[in-house]
Amino acid sequence: MALIEVKNLSVFFEAGDRIVQAVKDVSLSVDEKESYGLVGESGSGKSTILRAICGLAPISRGEILIGGEPLLTPRGKAFTRKVQMVFQDPYASIHPRHTIDRTLSEPLAIHGIGNTDARVVQALRDVGLPESFRFRYPHQLSGGQRQRVAIARALMLEPEILLLDEPTSALDASVQAETLNLLNRLRAERGLTFLMVSHDLAVVDHMCERVLVMQHGRAVEEMENGALANASMKTDYARMLYEASADRMLG
Amino acid sequence: MTTLTEWLRDPSPKSRVQARVGQSYLGWLRFRRNPLAMAGALIVLLLIVLAAFAPLIAPHDPIAQDLSQRLLPPGTPGYLMGTDEFGRDILSRIIYGSRVTLYIVTMVAVTAPLFGLLVGTVAGYAGGWVDQVLMRITDIFLAFPKLILALALVAVLGPGIENAVLAIALTSWPPYARMSRAETLTVRNADYIAAVRLQGAGPVRVIWGHVMPMCMSSVVIRVTLDMAGVILTAAGLGFLGLGVQPPLPEWGMMISSGRKFLTDFWWVATMPGLAIFVVSLGFNLLGDGLRDVLDPRSAGK
């Protein structure tokens, strides 16, 4: 059974007297323990789908089911223990005045989960950060280290689903690969389900079993990972995206 | 000594306390580089010491009258700053007066900014009608001239030091509310706020634990810079006879009583005036220095 089901989702924003349609009639379904990618250019509405799932963007039409159940508004604590998100920019997604320790123990405090010290130390170890980073401030960490902290934070509540909003696009190439491998390892270890947004087909090819290509808020084409490997996409737009990142994929 | 510095500068602190103290230490290092700010801090420290040890420092009883010694000029043996029209030692009265000033400053600094911060962050974070209602109330308070509103309040409540504090606090919170609302609007859509909301945090936790720390530094700077104004307002109330009541020594009241013989005995009004001037200047310099240390735009550089 599908863990995440998005049915005919549309998201509209009101900008003054104009209505902007960020997502138009998109449907997708992600199976348990699957890794599903959303690809497209900037402004294609891929991040908006993630934000709509979390309640950061409105669901204007259609519906979203998690584990077969429709979402509540506001999402509620049960939802937050099931679904967590990793944001794009690690420089903006960690509170600048809190130590790493505070950032990681906050979700435990919210949900009244005890044994904070051991859990925080374990979380740091799981994402490959030394224990000595625990009481540092974010400005003492590099971008890649911050993104590891953000991943650790998302995993504190042991969710089933991780929403990844371009988790590596703010990092440079070598750190990007490390972070993606970390995510793959964590998924294998914990049986996580990923819904991942990227503008980079090479990243999605590395991470995802199925991919949905989006353009101007609409779904263009859904492909299996195999279709990427032998370049058998049906639509021109998907082929164009593929050609833009093909050289990096082969290498 | 070196081990303490090492402990403070440790890049990988071992505990929450060490992390926080270490950050403060780095701020102190930045603060120490600014000589004017250090001068301001020294003046404020001096004020605190004077107030704390007034009975030990003051050479005379500030209230004891001695009409045979009235209106002695500064420099008279035993009366460094001279005496006033009742023969009371002006230096002792200024030293005891620092207690009143410090009391008013502390009480205002604790109440008004906290209230303003609460109103501003709640308005900014909640938005909608809550924002509208709270900010319109703030606008109404801002529309009154500060000293006039304080005068009216004291006139209604009766003169006295507590009522003066209340009047000053009630007239000085709106700027803090506006400022913290503006800060809140810039951080409320930040990813780190979205992240903590996604973890299930309620509005109280978000505002208290995540929004307020971002507003704190600008509030602290503003409070320090406003302290000069608070001292002047308190002195103004004292001057008009609506603040502290005699015989308690208060700087504004001392100026007021010296006004009557300003031409013949200039020191009676000038000495407390100088005290107000120096302390206000001290707070202003301290505030400027704190801005260099705490301002988020310059932090981290």
Give an overview of the whole structure.
Chain A is of the alpha/beta class and 251 residues long. Chain A is built from nine helices and ten strands. Chain A has one domain: P-loop containing nucleotide triphosphate hydrolases (Rossmann fold, 3-Layer(aba) Sandwich), CATH 3.40.50. In chain A, the strands form two sheets. A six-stranded mixed sheet of chain A has the order 6-7-8-3-9-10, with helices on both faces. In chain A, strands 2-1-4-5 form a four-stranded antiparallel sheet, with helices on one face. The radius of gyration of chain A is 18 Å and the shape is globular. The two termini of chain A are 35 Å apart. The model of chain A has no long low-confidence stretch (mean pLDDT 87). Chain B has 13 helices and no strands. In chain B, helix 9 (174-187) runs antiparallel to helix 11. The longest helix of chain B has 37 residues, at 90-126. Chain B starts with a helix and ends in a 7-residue tail after the last helix.
